[in-house]
C-alpha cells in the first residue's frame, strides 16, 4: 500500500512549533524545533495506528500490512 501524508507546522507561544497530519486528525504534537515536532507527530501517528490495530479497527484480511508513505512537508502560513 502506498500513501501520502502532509505535515503542517504552526509556530505557537514561547517558541514551540505544533505539527499535525491533516489526513489523521488525532496526529498532532509539538516540539522546540521543526525536526523535533516532525519526529513527535510521526510518533503520534504510529501510536494511532497501533491503537487502531489493538482495537481491531481494520478491514478483514489486512493483518501484517506494511505501509510505505511519501512525506510532504507543507510550508507554514
In a few lines, what is going on in this structure?
Helices cover 27% and strands 31% of the residues. The protein has 77 residues and is α+β, with helices and mostly antiparallel strands. It starts with a strand and ends with a strand.
Radius of gyration: 14 Å
Assign the CATH architecture. Answer: 2-Layer Sandwich
Overall pLDDT: 79
Overall number of structural domains: 1
Q: Which residues sit in consecutive blocks of at least 5 with pLDDT less than 50?
A: none
CATH class: Alpha Beta
Structural class: alpha+beta
Total number of helices: 1
- Give the N-terminus to C-terminus distance in angstroms: 31 Å
Sheet bearing the most strands, described?
4 strands, mixed
What spatial order of strands do you see in the largest sheet?
3-2-1-4
* Estimated share of beta-strand residues: 25-35%
Write the element-wise H/E pattern from the N-terminal end onward: EEEHE
Shape: globular
CATH topology: Double Stranded RNA Binding Domain
Number of strands: 4
Helix content: 25-40%
Describe the structure.
With 77 residues, this protein is an alpha+beta fold. It has a single domain, classed as Double Stranded RNA Binding Domain (2-Layer Sandwich). 27% of the residues lie in helices and 31% in strands. It is built from 1 helix and 4 strands; from the N terminus they run βββαβ. Strands 3-2-1-4 form a 4-stranded mixed sheet, covered by helices on one side. Strand 1 and strand 2 form a beta hairpin. The longest helix is centred in the middle third of the chain and has 21 residues. It is globular and about 40 Å long. The termini are far apart. The mean pLDDT is 79.
Amino acid at each position: 500500500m502506498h500513501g501520502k501524508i502532509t505535515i503542517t507546522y504552526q509556530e505557537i507561544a514561547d517558541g514551540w512549533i505544533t505539527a499535525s497530519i491533516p489526513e489523521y486528525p488525532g496526529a498532532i504534537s509539538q516540539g522546540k524545533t521543526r525536526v523535533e515536532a516532525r519526529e513527535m507527530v510521526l510518533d503520534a501517528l504510529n501510536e494511532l495506528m497501533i491503537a487502531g490495530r489493538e482495537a481491531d479497527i481494520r478491514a478483514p484480511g489486512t493483518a501484517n500490512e506494511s505501509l510505505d508513505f511519501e512525506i510532504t512537508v507543507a510550508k507554514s502560513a
